[in-house]
Amino acid sequence: MAFTERSAAARRAILAAARESFATTGYEQSTIRSIAAAAGVHSSMVIRYFGSKSDLFVATVANESPIPEVGDLDDFGARFARRFVEYWEGSDCAGPGALLRVAPTHQDAAEQVQAVFDRLIAGPVRVALAGDPDVERRVALLVATAVGFVYTRHILRLEPVASIPPEALVPALAATFQSHLTGPLAAEPAGRGDEGRGRE
Amino acid sequence: MAFTERSAAARRAILAAARESFATTGYEQSTIRSIAAAAGVHSSMVIRYFGSKSDLFVATVANESPIPEVGDLDDFGARFARRFVEYWEGSDCAGPGALLRVAPTHQDAAEQVQAVFDRLIAGPVRVALAGDPDVERRVALLVATAVGFVYTRHILRLEPVASIPPEALVPALAATFQSHLTGPLAAEPAGRGDEGRGRE
């Protein structure tokens, strides 16, 4: 193998070991040393390729993102909702789930959540919405909605959120995400924003 | 004082001591014994009036609810948003904040969150929306949105949610809550729900 192939193989092995470790052992208990051992490399190689444990975590999550490319904004809400629900109903979310579980009481984990969101969603959405004066509010609504669903459904298991079938959740989330991204926002801060849409 | 007045005074003293304890010491560290001592009553009186520590917590929160009466559904989103933001920006939310912080890693705390939500919001909203076939999805969206904002803004302090001024947050939340309650929901589960609203 050429040098670059060897290094690519080592990176893949490290990412796979890290994913496994974060998912089964949790973020806190996973160490660079144990991940390196599982990947069959020296700890220094993990540091060289990925930096810190937290950087490695971000790389692991970014590598199997629950967030699709932003692409066409007009159907991003639907694409995001499908991938988001599929991801969190599946078995690959144990590592990110462990991170979100400890983040409220561990500042470093909360910083990793921030890094993951910046890289995977806030950054790309800011680019896609460039020029929109409400871009920060739109990103905030999007992130808060996504985080809210993960906490209520998968971490706290609050009812009725926990029991909604995935196929009923996807369209509701799709509409909510899309509305946050491209729908009319509420009245400007000065307004009262309570025009009351009425029932239809 | 008549018996009922004495018992009302004792209840108030217990609730005040519990609120103070949950806010300053946190949910986990607060004990029936320490709350009783602070209220100047015997532990057995706390148990008699409120049941367990977790029941006492629910009573404490219910007593200064961040959720207004549902009342007229057509402007409940706006009223809820104003009260919700005011509450979480204020200083009275330390106890509930402490509960939400430990809930992801403490099942009993998660059950208290469920009890608070059932009592303060899911129950009343179910009554107000009786007959609506989508009531469970509406309640779920409402609860997930509210929880999402508390976790992103106040617990994880994720940007850009953490930095949005309250006066910009209120109308955005008002519109979102109202839409979840009385707006058109996305297509039925069988549909793809991605008609794409387009930008307006």
TrEMBL record, chains A, B:
Protein name according to UniProt: TetR family transcriptional regulator
Species of origin: Actinocatenispora thailandica
Entry keyword set: DNA-binding
DNA-binding segment(s): 31-50
Family annotation (Pfam families): TetR_C_16, TetR_N
Domain HTH tetR-type: 8-68
Domain of life where this protein originates: Bacteria
Organism ancestry: Bacteria, Bacillati, Actinomycetota, Actinomycetes, Micromonosporales
GO molecular function (one): transcription cis-regulatory region binding
